[in-house]
Amino acid sequence: MSKVIKKIAISQSNYIPWKGYFDLINSVDVFVLYDSAQYTKNDWRNRNLLMSKRGKQWLSIPVHHSTSLQIKQIQTADNIWWKKHWKTIEQLYCKAKFFELYRQPLCDLYHSLETEMSLSKINYKFILFVNKVLGIETEICFDDTFEHGSGQSEKLLAICQQLQATTYVSAPAAKSYLNESIFEEKNIHVSWFEYMSYPEYDQLGYQFEHTVSILDLLFNEGPRAKYYMMTFK
User: Contact 129/105 with Cβ under 8 angstroms?
Assistant: First the structure.
C-alpha cells in the first residue's frame, strides 16, 4: 500500500483574508493557525482591504498592540468596532450582485463578536465562516496544541512531525528563512505554494485589485467565486 500523503500548512491568522489565503487552506489536509507568533503592527492580522468606487479601503480592528506580544495575546481596544465594520461593508457592497445572499449570516457573525476581545478568535471565526461558504473541509487548529521546537524552522517542523505530515506546504514568502534541509532529513517534503495569475471578475472600482478581502469576491460572484480561485478547478 502506498503511503498516504498528508499535507500541512501553517500560517498566522488574518482578518477576513484574501482569496489566496483560502486557496492555501483548501490545498492541504490540516491548516495550523500559528498565533503563538509575535504580533506585527500594520500587517494583515487585524486589518484587510475592501473595494469602493474610489479604490481600495482599509478595514482595521482597533487593538491594544505591542510587538512584544503574541498574536493570541492581542485584545481589541473596544467592543464597538464590529458595528463600524458591518456598517462600512453594507455601505460599500449593498448594491453588489450577491450581497443579499450573505448579508444575514455575516451580519449575525459580526453581532456575535460584541463580547469577543481576542483578535485570534475573531480571525478564526471569520476563517471558519468563509470555509463553510466555499465548502472547504480542511481541519483548522491552533499551534498552541502542539509542542514547539527551539528555532523558527524547528517550530514548524515539530508541528508537522506531530501531525505526521508527509508534505509541508508553505507560502513563497518563507523562502527567505525556512531551512528546507531539516524537513527533508525527516522525510517531509517542502512544497512552495504559488499564487498563479488569478482571473479578474466584476468588481467595484475603476481599477481591478486582486489583494482585497475574499468578501469582495463573494459579494460580486456568489456561488461562482470558486471559479475565480486556483484550487477548486
Answer: yes
The grid coordinates of residue 204 equal 467595484
Whole-angstrom Cα distance, residue 93 to residue 81? 18
Cβ contact 71:13 at 8 Å: yes
Interval 91-112: pLDDT, tens: 999 999 999 999 999 999 999 9
Question: In which band, very low, low, confident or very high, does the pLDDT at 204 lie, cut at 50, 70 and 90?
Answer: confident
Global pTM reads: 0.95
DSSP H helices in the chain: 19-26, 81-93, 99-112, 119-134, 152-162, 180-185, 214-221
In angstroms, the Cα distances linking 185 to 110, 165, 189 are 45, 13, 9
Left if phi > 0, otherwise alpha if psi is -120 to 50, otherwise beta: which for 13? beta
Find, among 42, 5, 26, the residue nearest to 137 by Cα.
26
> How crowded is the C-beta side of 207, counted as CA atoms within 13 Å?
4
